[in-house]
Specification:
Elements lengths: L7 H16 L12 H12 L7 E6 L3 H9 L6 E5 L7
Parallel strand pairs: 1-2
Length: about 90
């Protein structure tokens, strides 16, 4: 479920800050829905199978710079995914 109390612009700023801290001062643009209704509509489309993501490659967080270099080549055929490990032993 989507938490309607989360401000989408706050999430966008968090992602931008994380990305900038990893790859430096390069310009990064992240798109995110501004209204909860838009997020709900997108979720419904995904759950209905009307939107599918195309994944070209996966990279662990430690290889983000390499992933960025791959994207800059212009040869990617889909999305490039950065995987962040989650440690349950906290």
């Amino acid at each position: 479920p989507i938490n309607s109390n989360i401000d989408p612009s706050l999430l966008q700023r968090a992602f931008t800050a994380l990305w900038t801290s990893i790859v430096g001062n390069r310009k990064v643009v992240f798109g995110i829905a501004k209204r909860i209704e838009d997020l709900t509509f997108l979720r419904e489309l995904i759950e209905a199978g009307k939107i599918r993501s195309v994944i070209d490659r996966h990279y662990p967080l430690e290889q983000t710079a390499e992933a960025h270099r791959y994207v800059e080549t212009g040869h990617k055929k889909g999305n490039v995914v950065i995987t962040v490990e989650h440690n349950d032993k906290t």
